[in-house]
Amino acid sequence: MGVAMLHAGFISFSSCIPSFSSGGLSRRLSSLSNDPIREWILSEGKANEITRISPVGGGCINLASRYDTDAGSFFVKTNRPRPIYRDRCGTFQAATVTATTTLNHWSIEPSMFEGEALGLNAMYETRTVRVPKPFKVGPLPTGGSYIIMEFIEFGASRSNRSVLGRKLAEMHKTGKSENGFGFHVDNTIGSTPQINTWTSDWVEFYAEHRLGYQLKLARQQYGDSTIYERGLRLAKNIRPLFEGVAIEPCLLHGDLWSGNITSDRNGEPVILDPACYYGHCEAEFGMSWCAGFGGSFYNAYFEVMPKQPGFEKRRELYLLYHYLNHYNLFGSGYRSSAMSIIDDYLLMLKA
């Protein structure tokens, strides 16, 4: 799933938005008050003229556009209000979603793009793997929100996986947190809220805010008490898998699959649409089942971040979070994969 398809999914347009210029000072000034994207580009973006707006094709939640100006190009994503999560007390925004939430399609408020911008900026500041630099996030006057970021011209070929492995390891090595495991805000994994409450213990964080949260969503959405009960039993018994492992809170992209990996025109890896938090570095490989990393990726990664004892035993534990999320987002096609992992670990751990 990954955010290129969902979290930052793009909607294709049947025709291009007409290009335009400033067209006179009075018209330009009157339009700025109703268009915060143009206002930012023509002020803080240091452009005098927007020469063209072109739609960018892709997935299914957000609209994506390229704004060409005399000061360079910008990448802009926008969204519109949708139905939101509800609990017994009524409706509330994604930023305050808790594990008592019933999973439905939810309203994507500025908090979603704020989380994305904070994650992009955190990765950008490590000066390791390339990410688009975020510039501005805000609400749209007609509802919904927007994010403006650096426009990166993509290359024709996929990124070199060994270079990606090395740069990702450098990001994990550089990006550390003194607050423990979590992130500055809750964000989203696909369109599912991702709870990032700071926690000092990784096993507790992963059991409660990753596995436990998804299991509760599955029970609430599908009435699936079987996966909930077995999964919760696993979550309470995973600590032996981490014996002898020193776990540091590393900055993670959080949703690293093939749709969120590309390269720039120089062939350097670029990663997009994050669901960032600080966690165990191995959790970054949770989407490896559809990322196409390969041996060269892992070899390069482990040269920088050495493989930890018990790595192989924990691999599927980190896949489980994403299989559960896919189950919650896309339905029963992913249930058997999640259930199989749960049952295998219960047998292994004699739990």
UniProtKB/TrEMBL annotation:
Its EC number is 2.7.1.172. The keyword Plastid applies. GO terms for cellular component: chloroplast. InterPro entries: Fructo-/Ketosamine-3-kinase, Kinase-like_dom_sf. Pfam families: Fructosamin_kin. It comes from the Eukaryota. Its main location: plastid. GO terms for molecular function: kinase activity; protein-ribulosamine 3-kinase activity. It is found in: Plastid, Chloroplast. It catalyses: N(6)-D-ribulosyl-L-lysyl-[protein] + ATP = N(6)-(3-O-phospho-D-ribulosyl)-L-lysyl-[protein] + ADP + H(+). Keywords: Chloroplast, Kinase, Plastid, Transferase. Belongs to the fructosamine kinase family. This is Protein-ribulosamine 3-kinase, chloroplastic. It comes from Coffea arabica.
